[in-house]
Amino acid sequence: MSSVPPLIRPPRLTPGARVAVVAPSGPVPADRLHAGLDVLRGWGLDPVVMPHVLDTHPSLPYLAGTDGARARDLTDAWCDPTVSAVFCARGGYGVQRVTDLVDWTAVRAAAPKVLVGYSDITALHEAFAVRAGIATLHGPMPGALTFLKDARTQEHLRATLFDPESVRTLEALPGARTMTPGRATGVTLGGCLALLAGDLAVPHTRPGARGGILLLEDVGEEDYRIDRMLTQLLRSDWLAGVAGVVLGSWAECGPYASVRAVLLDRLGTLGVPVLEEFGFGHGESALTMPLGVPATLDADARTLTLQVPALDTAAAAAGARH
Question: For the whole model, what pTM was predicted?
Answer without folding.
Answer: 0.96
